Amino acid sequence: MSVRPDLHQHYVRACQDLGQPENAFIAHLLQEADKNDKIRWAKGITLKIAGNDRLVPVQRVTDDDLKVLTSVLPNTVFVTGLDLRCNVLTDAGAKHMATFLQENATLRYLNLMFNNIGTSGTELIARALHRNETLEYLRMTGNKIGNKGGMFFASMLQINSTLERLDLGDCDMGMQCLIAIATALTQNKSVKAINLNRPLLYSQEEETTVHIALMLKNNSSLVELHLCKHEMKNFGVERLCEALYENSSLRYLDLGCNKITRDGVKFLAELLKRNRTLEILDLGANRIEDDGATDLSEALALYNRTLQALSVVSNNVSGQGLVALSDAMKTNTELSYIYIWGNNFDEATCTAFSELIKTGRLKPNCTDVEPYEVDGHVHLAELSHGLRKHYYWTPSCGEVTNKDANASLAIAAVSEY
Question: Is Repeat given among the entry's keywords (predicted)?
């Protein structure tokens, strides 16, 4: 049995040595961590120092606070995760984190989402990962790293062979760095999940989608790919589908919030007829309409037996397409998760999905609608379920219990492949 450490006491001493006032929020969380049984058995813990915590008074972590914290943690082998989301860290804090990553040999998870880290701080973190051999999951979501920051990560992906999951969503990246990242992933064999959501693209030629498609033809390790808000149209979808005929590793494809219409969905439907690896397909906030939903239904009912989850949220689908999807679920027993809210429900739709739920074919926690009856008519109410329910937030206390309607990798974790 390992000796129980005293993180709080070490933190107080470090504040005194560095002449830095204590951060009451950090001190409280370290005291709670000292009581954690996982430490006693050296199983490893994640320090959740999130600035959006609502259960206790929050004093957001500054660059100086991080300097003290990183001086406490380098030799703390049981801290394997660090969640610093929604704080006020800047490039100066990124410098302290980069130094920590070069020295630390136990941290596997680092969450820096929604801080104020810019290009120079990103460069330091990316260069630290040239040497770091333990970090497996990095989230930079919401930091305005820009095109130059994305280029630093592209260079890192050519060297680092440990990182498995990289989240660069909402980071204001541009076309050049997306192409560079796609090129790096052509050779990288370690990254299994990457989020490239919402870049700043000013071209209508879909060059980035073409390069990502070329990457998918050659990449044999990527399991999860997020391409939300890429201004993707039917041409780009066709290029992706052509590539995925030759890809046998991708399990999760996220194409939400693009400009895909019923004509683009025809390519996806044809892909599903032959693809034997794709398990999760997110088409939320496109415009596939009834014809697109019908094409998907035919592929799922007659050919595909691999897809487990489908989201067609907010796609201007009405009763004809939604009923077709419900009918497909009656013959396809592998499709277990379906999300349909934001479309045009008629009575036939409400009845069809109500029957799926009542018969047990569709579990209540595997969809985002719930039937109720008023004056003899069935209606559907919205449930707060979805493929990425806990992408931006996680419960402040306890673990996520309902993993069926969870973010990203909950249906099949990356490590399982």
Answer: yes
Instruction: Judge if 115 and 242 occupy the same domain.
Output: no
Residue 144 within a domain: yes
Other Cβ atoms closer than 10 A to 376:
5
**Looking at the structure, do residues 157 and 294 belong to the same domain, yes or no?**
no
State how far the Cα of 148 lies from the Cα of 359, in Å rounded to an integer: 53
DSSP codes, 312-376? -TTS---HHHHHHHHHHHHH-SS--EEE-TTS---HHHHHHHHHHHHTTSS-GGGBSEEEEEETT
Structural domain of residue 293, as residue ranges?
201-416
- Residue 417 amino acid letter: Y
Has this prediction a pTM greater than 0.85?
yes
Count of domains observed in the chain: 2
Cα-based torsion angle of the residue sequence 57, 60, 64, 65 in order, rounded to the nearest 10 degrees: 50
